[in-house]
């Protein structure tokens, strides 16, 4: 049985690996785990002598299963499976009795640690998990070799890890990165980022987060700041309270996955860049207009949106070309009809206002200018803390509060334009971003933005940003400057490094972290076939099929070499001299023929046993081998030559065969 | 006549006196040959004293027997300084300890004070009385007998003192045939006389030869593996000390010598291990629940034939 030290270490590893998953685990499951941890530790420290009986434990397990089954509907398959695993571990921890239990629990803990990667893939998480794995390996090692000293075990562990790291690196780089065979069971959890409906109040909540949304690395030049409208999704349906996508668009998107891609006509100059997007659990991707995807898994649709084939459960990277001089002039008649739809009533003042504007301004251009003019002339205020507007949101905003976030402006403007008969829609996404070194732009959640697109017969969809009219700072400098007057930037995250931009070294530190994070996300978490191919072409010049084969074989060869070196270095050294070797061999042969030697039986004893139990020819041959062994091993006399010993062995085999037949 | 033949003859002679205990007699001889003290533990009437007597006679040693009781004092054992009025000085009168072979009968009936006086003499081969040190004769052997600890009126020997005995043997009940022979002999009324077969000089030579007997690396590794096993496994509450491993090798050599071999083989170690190690592995019998001997357990866990 493992001694206390190893069990204690294992218990700590298990608890820590689950602490890291605290927002995935159900509260009562974590509670149960902590209680069983306390029980185990108090058992180990002898503050408590009696463990829970098997019967109580079984009952508890059944009850927990029932409760988990009940909750399982709400938290999704994936999470309930993880909870089940942790539950099982908690019960095993109480009943940690023998060698088998210890191994089982160690392996399960390793599995839980691996599960952690599904939820957290940041560098810091990886460091944490690596430390846990090392601690666990250490516990396992000292469990198997309890007599070795601490420094001895550590050097052994370091040796093993130093062999394992290059092997896993090579496997990571060289193994083909296939797309997942099945989709991850959906995570029924709110992920940060844009949602697929636009409730004007929601977007300002998103903008309270300083989390990275995505980062884009441009190949040559960077666009100017006012060009940085990152389209994420287009909202075309307004139900009086919120904007959302039309169900038809979802069907259209599913069809596009299987049919040919949507290819808008593009021309003019372009930007080429790759984007590393953080997980959102949705299919939304981000790009500047008009985007055509380069990567395979990315689909363009007629709303000029990019979507991914799979929900973003982990960081992904994709490459895009944006033709910024191409107008967005593709629209079907369905699109235009759809973008005029409005709920039949509500917002009476807005309706009257629109009617009046439409009467005064005959052309589309004039109507739009008049609306923008209204925002400009009235005392509208851009704010991260808008008031709640439950009913007739547009009326309340336009004529009473006059204080809102970009979503309020975009939603109200699109509403007014539709009232005046101009096809219009709300686009959500991100605006701006922070310039990093190396032509890179980091876009954070607080860069979330919403704007309006209106249809012109001659120019197609044209972007209007009412927020920019009210608060040009938002467009030119970003959110922080735009809401500086009310001091509401990141009020929910008082310790975010973003807040300390003015402190120079802190800002540099933040930028360095961001750089590291980007590198990590693009080369480790988002490592895919494309990057694999780029490595191959960097080595061989081009990524032909032969080169890929060579690369994979080469990597496998190196791995085999490393493994061989490890095995060779750790080979038990057989220094036994020939007399002993052949004697042991003879014992094996005799055992095969039924002359079993007891484990603790001495050689002389065994000799006497053979003498009485075996036929004479067998005994005569064995006698010579035995005497040779005894003389060599115990009397310090020289042994027979290896050649003779070999002959004797052969003879032994022969007489055994003939005596048995 | 070779020493091995002498030993055989002695064995024959003692065997005719204590029938059916050949292995134990051989162990006792081994112990004396290795220069160590012997502890015989058994119930009363099993032939402990007879065996000691026989050994002393066969070896031709000066013999004394001390019956230990609870009121025995150290002075009764070591001797005292007595004032002689004629010479006007103190004269040391040697106690029974000043003999080649001392039989300490029922040692665990004496008080700890007396026990420790004896054990000190065993270790140092000398006694100190009133500040003067007196050398004990050489060779000096102690054969102590003791009743099992759970018998009434006993002071169990402490662990440190048990360790002083090279071997502890138990005689056990004789088998039926032996006992029958014994009873018949008693009816006949003749008690075989024992002659001195091994002279002290011969014994001295034999002890020298035993010390120089060849013990190969393989044997030393086997002894080490046994000792390590007792230290590594939690099944052994009292691991073997280096003194114990030295004792095991020493006794194995003597055993090999008695068997007439000039080198030690694993069977020698296995033969003596029980007698040498059991009382060190199991210090206090009363506390232990273990029924199979620890030395047996130890032997079963180590493979003598491996590289």
From TrEMBL, chain A:
Keywords: Membrane, Transmembrane, Transmembrane helix
PROSITE patterns xref list: PROKAR_LIPOPROTEIN
Membrane-spanning residues: 6-35, 56-73, 110-140, 161-182, 548-568
SUPFAM superfamilies named in the record: Cysteine proteinases
SMART domains per record: TGc
InterPro entries: Bact_TGase-like, Papain-like_cys_pep_sf, TgpA_N, Transglutaminase-like
Transglutaminase-like domain boundaries: 398-468
Coiled coil: none
Pfam families linked: TgpA_N (PF11992), Transglut_core (PF01841)
Name by which UniProt lists this protein: DUF3488 domain-containing transglutaminase family protein
UniProtKB/TrEMBL annotation, chain B:
GO molecular function: ATP binding; ATP hydrolysis activity
Limits of the ATPase AAA-3 domain: 37-167
Keyword line: ATP-binding, Nucleotide-binding
Pfam families: AAA_3, AAA_lid_2
Keyword Nucleotide-binding in annotation: yes
Start and end residues of each ChlI/MoxR AAA lid domain: 231-289
Full protein name: MoxR family ATPase
Originating organism: Neptunicella marina
């Amino acid at each position: 049985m493992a001694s206390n030290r190893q069990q204690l270490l294992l218990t700590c590893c298990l608890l820590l690996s689950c602490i890291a998953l605290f927002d995935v685990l159900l509260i009562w499951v974590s509670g149960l785990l902590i209680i069983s941890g306390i029980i185990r530790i108090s058992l180990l420290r002898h503050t408590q002598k009696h463990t829970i009986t098997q019967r109580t434990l079984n009952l508890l397990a059944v009850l927990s299963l029932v409760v988990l089954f009940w909750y399982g509907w709400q938290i999704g398959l994936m999470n309930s499976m993880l909870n089940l695993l942790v539950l099982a571990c908690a019960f095993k921890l109480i009943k940690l009795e023998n060698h088998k239990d210890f191994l089982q629990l160690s392996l399960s803990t390793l599995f839980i640690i691996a599960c952690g990667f599904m939820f957290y893939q940041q560098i810091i998480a990886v460091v944490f998990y690596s430390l846990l794995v090392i601690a666990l390996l250490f516990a396992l090692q000292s469990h198997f070799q309890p007599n070795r000293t601490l420094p001895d075990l550590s050097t052994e562990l370091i040796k093993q890890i130093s062999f394992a790291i290059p092997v896993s690196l090579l496997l990571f780089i060289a193994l083909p990165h296939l797309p997942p065979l099945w989709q991850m069971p959906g995570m029924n959890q709110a992920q940060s980022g844009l949602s697929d409906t636009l409730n004007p109040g929601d977007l300002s909540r998103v903008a309270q987060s300083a989390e990275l949304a995505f980062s884009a690395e441009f190949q040559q030049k960077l666009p100017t700041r006012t060009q940085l409208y990152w389209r994420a999704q287009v909202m075309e349906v307004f139900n009086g309270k919120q904007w959302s996508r039309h169900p038809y668009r979802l069907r259209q998107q599913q069809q596009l996955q299987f049919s040919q891609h949507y290819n808008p006509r593009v021309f003019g100059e372009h930007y080429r860049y790759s984007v590393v997007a953080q997980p959102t659990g949705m299919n939304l991707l981000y790009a500047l207009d008009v985007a055509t995807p380069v990567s395979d898994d990315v689909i363009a649709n007629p709303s000029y949106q990019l979507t991914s084939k799979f929900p973003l459960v982990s960081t992904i990277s994709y490459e895009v070309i944006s033709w910024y001089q191409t107008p967005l002039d593709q629209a079907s008649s369905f699109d235009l009809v759809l973008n005029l739809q409005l709920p039949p009533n509500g917002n009476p003042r807005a309706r009257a206002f629109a009617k009046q504007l439409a009467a005064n301004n005959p052309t589309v251009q004039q109507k739009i200018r008049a609306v923008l003019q209204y925002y400009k002339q009235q005392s509208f205020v851009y704010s991260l803390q808008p008031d709640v507007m439950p009913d007739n949101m547009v009326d309340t905003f336009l004529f009473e509060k006059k204080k809102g976030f970009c979503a309020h402006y975009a939603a109200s403007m699109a509403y007014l334009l539709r009232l005046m008969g101009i096809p219009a829609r709300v686009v959500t996404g991100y605006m701006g971003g922070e310039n990093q070194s190396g032509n890179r732009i980091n876009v954070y959640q607080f860069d979330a933005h919403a704007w309006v697109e209106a249809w012109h017969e001659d120019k197609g969809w044209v972007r209007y940003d009412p927020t920019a009219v009210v608060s040009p700072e938002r467009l030119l400098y970003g959110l922080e400057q735009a809401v500086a007057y009310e001091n509401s930037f990141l009020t929910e995250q008082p310790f975010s490094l973003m807040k300390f931009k003015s402190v120079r070294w802190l800002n540099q530190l933040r930028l360095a972290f961001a750089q590291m994070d980007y590198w990590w996300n693009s080369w480790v978490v988002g490592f895919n076939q494309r990057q694999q191919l780029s490595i191959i072409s960097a080595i061989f010049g081009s990524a032909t099929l032969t080169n890929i084969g060579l690369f994979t074989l080469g990597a496998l060869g190196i791995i085999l070499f490393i493994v061989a070196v490890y095995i060779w270095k750790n080979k038990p050294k057989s220094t036994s001299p020939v007399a002993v070797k052949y004697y042991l061999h003879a014992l094996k042969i005799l055992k095969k023929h039924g002359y079993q030697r007891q484990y603790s039986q001495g050689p002389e004893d065994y000799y006497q046993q053979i003498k009485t139990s075996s036929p004479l020819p067998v005994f005569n041959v064995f006698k010579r081998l035995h005497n040779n062994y005894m003389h060599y091993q115990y009397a310090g006399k020289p042994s027979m030559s290896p050649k003779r010993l070999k002959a004797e062995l052969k003879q032994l085999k022969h007489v055994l065969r003939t005596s048995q037949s | 006549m070779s020493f091995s033949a002498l030993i055989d003859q002695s064995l024959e002679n003692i065997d005719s006196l204590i029938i059916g205990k050949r292995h134990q007699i051989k162990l006792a001889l081994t112990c004396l040959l290795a220069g160590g003290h012997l502890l015989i533990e058994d119930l009363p009437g099993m032939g402990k004293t007879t065996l000691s007597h026989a050994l002393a006679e066969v070896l031709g040693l000066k013999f004394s027997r001390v019956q230990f009781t609870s009121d025995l004092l150290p002075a009764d054992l070591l001797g005292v300084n007595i004032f002689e009025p004629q010479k006007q000085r103190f004269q040391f009168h040697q106690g029974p300890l000043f003999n080649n072979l001392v039989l300490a009968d029922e040692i665990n009936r004496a008080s700890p004070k007396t026990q420790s006086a004896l054990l000190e003499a065993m270790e140092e081969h000398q006694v100190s009385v009133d500040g003067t040190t007196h050398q004990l004769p050489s060779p000096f052997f102690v054969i102590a007998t003791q009743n099992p600890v759970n018998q009434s009126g006993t002071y169990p020997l402490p662990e440190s003192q048990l360790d002083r005995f090279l071997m502890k043997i138990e005689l056990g009940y004789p088998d039926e045939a032996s006992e029958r022979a014994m009873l018949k002999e008693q009816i006949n009324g003749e008690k075989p006389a024992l002659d001195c077969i091994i002279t002290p000089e011969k014994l001295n030579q034999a002890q020298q030869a035993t010390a120089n007997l060849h013990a190969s690396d393989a044997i030393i590794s086997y002894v080490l593996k046994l000792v390590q096993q007792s230290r590594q496994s939690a099944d052994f509450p009292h691991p073997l000390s280096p003194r114990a491993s030295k004792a095991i090798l020493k006794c194995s050599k003597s055993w090999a010598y008695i068997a007439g071999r000039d080198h030690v083989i694993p069977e020698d170690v296995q033969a003596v291990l029980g007698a040498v190690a059991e009382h060190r592995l199991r210090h206090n019998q009363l506390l232990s629940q273990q029924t199979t001997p620890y030395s047996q357990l130890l032997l079963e866990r180590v493979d003598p034939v491996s590289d």
